[in-house]
Amino acid sequence: MPYTKSDWELSERAMMFTEFELLARHCIHLTEISFIESRYWGWMAKLDLTQYWLHLTKLPLSFGSRDSYYVFQAMTNRITSLELRASFPSPLTVWNLIPRIQNLHTLYIHDRTMPLRISHLQQLDHVENLTLITKLIPPEDDLQRPLPPTRLKTFACAIDDPNSAWFSVFRSYYKDIDKLTVHCLTDRSSTEDALLKMIGAILDTTHATRIQQVKASFHDTHDFRLTVESVIMDIIYDYTIWDRRGIPSIIEFDIKYYDASVFVYPRNSFESIFSRSNRGHHLFKMIRSWSDDENEKDEIGFLASLMKEPIHLQLNQLTITRVTHCLGPTPVFHLDLLLHQFPQLEYFSFTVSKRININKKRLGRPEPMEGAEMLISKDTMITNRRFHPLQVLKIKSTKINRSVYHYLFKSCTRLRKLYLDHCYFKDDETVIAIEYFCLQHGVELIIIN
Known about the structure:
Elements: H1 7-10, H2 17-26, H3 39-46, H4 66-74, E1 81-84, H5 94-97, E2 106-116, H6 118-121, E3 129-136, E4 154-159, H7 166-172, E5 179-184, H8 192-207, E6 213-219, H9 224-238, E7 249-258, E8 269-275, E9 279-289, H10 299-306, E10 315-324, E11 333-334, H11 335-341, E12 347-354, H12 358-362, E13 373-375, H13 378-383, E14 392-396, E15 399-400, H14 402-411, E16 417-421, H15 428-441, E17 444-448
Parallel strand pairs: 1-2, 2-3, 3-4, 4-5, 5-6, 7-9, 7-10, 10-12, 11-13, 12-14, 13-15, 14-16, 16-17
Antiparallel strand pairs: 6-8, 8-9
Helix pairs in contact: 3-4, 8-9
């Protein structure tokens, strides 16, 4: 869902008020400030903001504190964005602030309990980027009253119902914007029919407007097989923006596999982007845990069962990450079998991430850190006559059999970039051979040790 905190935000250094005041006094040209702790809002409210930070235009995300309201109020003449994660305490409201902010370009409100009426949208004609994860009150007059001309370019909202009143708003008020993002809210009770109806409502609305790009996203989807097999089949082969003939699509799959020694809460997501350029981009993110009683721990077999014909022919980008707590080697990976299963793959990344228990290290046990071995199956080495459109290959923390390099330069004639990150080579001669073949075939080689 929208708004994430970066690493540097999560590790902010605690400050005293005197330090904060010195910052305001000496950093006079500051244009943006970011913090997490709510006490800093109180410190900002104590400053004379008619004298300090006259160039400050962007403030942090507010969680609805009274102090943050007073800070926004004191800076209405210069801030250009307002980001709110919860309502202000009554009687303070964001709708009293917005008309006073003269140069407001970006507004982000994420409070699903906050009631939103059409009259509120009438205050936002000067906003260019708008996100409203709120409770839309259905209009009584069926949106007959026109809104004033708007500068809006991008709009984002959340829906949990294919009959949401937001669809009427898109068609009536925002039919000419550049980009629409719809976050579809699902739970364990969501059925295949409900998913398809939400997707259908989004795309039907798109057909009835001149919106240039539409992005639909599902977060924390529980039945991922259903999402892939049912929803994608309908989207890719039944819907386009211009017509119903089908469009060239990009499917990107980012999957992580954890071994049985660690519990992982599955956070699966799926998003589709449709553009007027008649191109679709579908991105899946999935986490999968192997259990001890599974005999076949094979990513290729699992993906083949998930992405059946003809979906597998549309897969263009694939990222696989193995996360293991085992000291020994992990199962081998056959690159040729993967490329055979997904013949249109242009980008592939394979990573083995070893997380070794510190107590096992102290016991002095042997710790073979090489990851899985990547190799080519014997049948392919003997009879290979196929060519594959792979252009970018990234391999990390993996032992690579020499057969892989022979296969790459014979069968992947479109290969442009080869990344080898902390991989394991048999000897220096292998590295020299790789460099020679890359130079000979015009392949950009990046080796990180």
